[in-house]
Amino acid sequence: MNQTSPLLQFAENLLQIVALLFMATVYTLKIRWILRFPQGKDRQAPRGVSSGPQGAKTSLLAIAMPWTMGSTRDHWFLYVQFVIFHIGVAGSIAMSFIIPYAPGVMRGPGVVLALQILFLAAAIVGLIRLVRRLGSSYMRSISSPDDYFSMCLLIVWLVFSALAAPNNPQVGEGPLLAYFFLTAFFLVYVPFSKISHYLYYPFARWYLGRTLGHRGVYPLVKGA
Amino acid sequence: MAAERSEKAAALVQRLPQKVNRQMVLSLAACAHCGLCTDQCHYVLANPGDVTYSPAYKGDRLRKLFKAHLDWTGRVIPWWVGARSVYTDEELEELKDTVFGKCTNCRRCSLNCPMGVDLATFNRMARGLLVHVGVMPDGVAHVAKDQWEIGNQMGVLQEDYLETLAWMEEELQSQYNDPNIKIPIDKEDANVFYTINPREAKYDPRTIADAAAIFHFAGENWTMGSDGWDMTNFGLFNGDDELGGAVAARVYDAVERLRARKLVISECGHGLRSTMCEGPNWAKRDLTFPAETSVFTMLNYIKEGRIKVDKSRNPEPVTYHDSCNLARSCGITEEPRELLQLVCSDFREMHPNRAENFCCTGGGGAMSMSEYSPRRLKSAKVKADQLKATGAKIVVTSCHNCVDGLFDLIRHYKLDMEVKQLVTLTAKALVLPQAAAAGAGSP
Q1: Chain A interface, mutation test: which of B19, B31, B34, most A Cβ atoms within 10 Å?
Q2: Is B351 within 8 Å of A70 when comparing Cβ atoms?
Q3: Which of B14, B114, B129, B321 is 20 to 30 Å from B70 at the Cα level?
């Protein structure tokens, strides 16, 4: 039977629930704030074989179809980094629920190793992205302290995710404590930072796609 | 102590909340500053290393304002999230230089943003805020004034316009030796109400005559209006929705007054987008009639057998330049090509093309801002290289701004090419009915 300290139990359970509730509250307030702004209308007649909903679908799927955009097609290495980084982040978030509530899922050594490789790969990508942000004058010109801090936060969090993945408090609670406290901080900080783009982007894409689908721009026709 | 704000800066800040809608808020919040839009912009490609041309940088000018005034994180911790308001007239001038002089609102960055951030809409909105406080290039101010006061953006007086139509009618009658060819004006209950770009009346009336010949030989019941005949709309370029709505409403009113069944818009990218797509939103009215580009009308006449064409009459190699407004905002990419294949015998595709095409650099009202011409022509290198690679002798486009922009860059980069519109090539390819052919002279 696993013996965990009261501090780790608190970090794995109550702290996460409080942080999640805090995040949900801020998001609720943000949604209310967004809904205060009037919704633009598309009064023009529909055109082409597409439609608003079809365009929205195309737009939402664009992120998974790198060949449809020159920006991702021309920078496939950046796209691969994007995929690894975001899968790593999603995996780490999932792990914060799995460890306290379904630890059996991660019992196999292969699973732990795979997760550790994923988290470390994502952390390395994060580091590459941070270097790119610092090294490119274009990136520096659009970066705020929040951009740098968010990236650093995620890199550190991903490293501790890799260290915490074995979920072995008997060996030492340090990595798990660091991981769960960082996760809680992450959940609290996200709504105020650029990291919350994950929440807004589907809606931004949906609106853009709806308009462009209605006008027959989406799905894009590829040239010869 | 709070920083002093100039009168204009204060008015701009006051205007900001009225201009932001939900789509914009989500777009402003979704930008992850990934920088993938950077090299999708022709200005960036022509000015490597100058960060102020990057779409994200330009979009950030508005985002900073938005954060400073509408997002509480920006009000509480502005330095942390990059929020920044405007305080001085110099800052407004700097913003003017960016949004008018470094972007043609071509929307190539918007379509290449992985997050779906519509950066071109940010730029248009920033222009609208500046115009609201009277900060804009002189050319923009003059054109907008003409469109408000005279009713068209080139200040063409009604008598001059009507005189031009009468002149073109005489030309047509003489060319085809047929006194029955008319350019009807204010005819009620016509099938087609045809609107044009005032540039046609002022500089290029032959395109009106070409369109009139096509309508005539198609046996169309059509008319032009003595009022509401300008389908261009500077509201799209200066970000002034009120101007946009008023100009679009003039056209809609004319169509409804004459009880025309369909509005046909001559080849103009921004005119089509403004009149067909954005106009109803700006004017807050739903159209009671269908609207289409004359490219569709000409193509349908051929498909329906109402006119016959002979592609061997246009044997020179041609390529097609997709207008940004047609391709990226109205979804019109295939029909112009279909028509070109019918009226020209040697069509060569340009790369990249369709929605991925590069701007001609004359869009977004750039042709009216002479102070930025050197920048415009420098950025046109991207387009010039595209054109050169086709080996074509004629570049065809369905947009009057593109005609001017392309003409300028062809001259600047000394390309052996000319610019034409589809209406010209279609009119040239017309196979006249026997009786008409017998009387026709050389065009």
Answers
A1: B34
A2: no
A3: B114
> What DSSP state is assigned to residue B353?
-
Counting every residue written for chain A, the total comes to: 224
Any domain includes A1: no
Provide the domain count of chain A: 1
pLDDT of residue B38: 97
Instruction: Tell me which residues of chain B, numbers 111 to 150, contact chain A at a CB-CB cutoff of 8 Å.
Output: 111-118
CB A180 within 8 A of CB A8: yes
Whether B27 sits inside 8 A of A204 (CB atoms) is: yes
Lowest mean pLDDT among B62-71, B81-90, B183-192, B434-443: B434-443
Q: Return the sign of the alpha-carbon dihedral for residues A88, A91, A97, A99.
A: negative
Q: What's the rounded Cα separation, in Å, for the pair B84 and B71?
A: 11
Residue at A96 is within a domain: yes
Residue (of B281, B283, B247, B282) closest to B265 by Cα position: B247
At residue A2, does pLDDT exceed 60? no
Both structure tokens of A94: 């999932």
| Within-domain flag for A121 | yes
Does the beta-carbon distance from B32 to A62 stay under 8 Å?
Answer: no
Q: How many CB atoms lie within 10 A of CB A83?
A: 15
Separation of alpha carbons B342 and B336, rounded Å: 10
Predicted confidence band of residue B241 (pLDDT cuts 50, 70, 90): very high
Instruction: Return the CATH number of the domain spanning residue range B308-430.
Output: 3.40.50
The contacts of residue B301 (CB under 8 Å, 6+ apart) are B214, B218, B220, B307
Segment 312-371 of chain B within 8 Å of chain A by CB: 327-334, 349, 351-356
- CATH of residue A160: 1.20.950.20
Amino acid at site A99: I
What whole-number distance in Å separates Cα of residue B366 and Cα of residue B372?
A: 8
Q: Domain-by-domain residue ranges, chain B?
A: 7-136, 158-303, 308-430
A61 within domain boundaries? no
pLDDT band for B419, please (50, 70, 90 cuts): very high
Q: How far apart are CA B166 and CA B148, in angstroms?
A: 26
And the tokens for B408?
A: 């300028």
Domain that holds residue A90: 6-37+69-214
Contacts 24+ apart (CB under 8 A), B26-29: B26/A34, B26/A200, B26/A203, B26/A204, B26/A207, B27/A204, B27/A207, B27/A208, B27/B116, B27/B117, B27/B118, B27/B121, B27/B122, B28/B62, B28/B63, B28/B66, B28/B117, B28/B122, B29/A196, B29/A197, B29/A200, B29/A204, B29/B71
Complex ipTM? 0.94
**Range A23-27, long-range pairs (CB < 8 A, 24+ positions):** A23/A187, A23/A188, A23/A190, A23/A191, A26/A191, A26/A192, A27/A191, A27/A199
Are A35 and B22 in contact (CB < 8 Å)? yes
Of B430, B443, B428, B373, the C-alpha closest to B137 is B373
C-alpha B228: how far from chain center? 18
Second-level CATH architecture of B7-136 = Orthogonal Bundle (1.10)
pTM: 0.95
Q: What angle do CA B247, B249, B250 make, to 5 degrees?
A: 65
Using CA coordinates, name the residue in chain B closest to A145: B80
For residue range B73-118, list pLDDT tens digits in order. 999 999 999 999 999 999 999 999 999 999 999 999 999 999 999 9
Task: For A114-131, write each residue's pLDDT tens digit.
Answer: 999 999 999 999 999 999
